[in-house]
Write a structure and sequence with these properties.
This protein has 118 residues and is mainly alpha-helical. Helices cover 55% and strands 0% of the residues. Bound molecules: heme C.
Length: 118
C-alpha cells in the first residue's frame, strides 16, 4: 500500500519533470533546422558552411558564444557585419542557428593525425 503510493508519487514527479523539460528543449533550438536557417540567411557566405570562418567573417564554431550574446550581436552589430532584425531572422531561427553551431564537432587533435607527426 505504502509502496504503491510512493510509486504513484514517483510517476507524478517524472511526468512533471517531462512537462517542464519540453519547453526548455524547444527553446534550446534544433541543430537540424539551424543548419537550414544558417544556409537560408546566408551566414555561410562570410563564416563558411561549418562556421569555420573565411576571408570575410570570423570563425563561429565549435564553441559558439552563449545564445544571448549571439542574439545581441546579430541584432545590434554596426561593424562589418550587417545586423539582422527580427522581421528578417526570427528568434526561433536564431536559436536553431545557435544549436547548429553548437552541434559542430571540434577539430581532431593534430597529434592524432599521422601526416602531421612525421
Ligand atoms: C556579409 C558577411 C557576413 C554575413 C552574411 C554574416 N556575417 Fe557574421 N560577421 C561578419 C563579420 C565581418 C564579423 C566580424 C565583425 C565585427 O567584429 O564587427 C562577423 C561577426 C559575427 C559574430 C561575432 C563573432 C565573434 O566571435 O565576435 C557572430 C556571432 C556572427 N557574425 C554570426 C552571424 C550569423 C548567425 C549570421 C547569419 C544570420 C552572420 N553572422 C552573417 C560577416 C558576416
Amino acid at each position: 500500500m505504502r509502496f504503491a503510493r510512493l510509486r504513484a508519487l514517483a510517476a507524478l514527479v517524472t511526468m512533471a519533470a517531462g512537462l517542464l523539460a519540453a519547453p526548455l528543449a524547444a527553446a534550446a533550438g534544433s541543430a537540424e533546422r539551424g543548419k537550414l536557417a544558417y544556409v537560408k540567411h546566408g551566414c555561410w557566405q562570410c563564416h563558411g558552411f561549418m562556421g569555420q570562418g573565411g576571408v570575410t567573417g570570423p570563425k563561429l564554431a565549435p564553441n559558439p558564444m552563449p545564445p544571448e550574446a549571439l542574439s545581441a550581436f546579430v541584432r545590434n552589430t554596426n561593424g562589418a557585419m550587417p545586423p539582422y532584425q527580427k522581421a528578417i531572422l526570427s528568434d526561433e531561427d536564431l536559436a536553431d542557428i545557435h544549436a547548429y553551431l553548437q552541434s559542430l564537432p571540434k577539430a581532431p587533435d593534430y597529434k592524432s593525425i599521422p601526416l602531421l607527426n612525421p
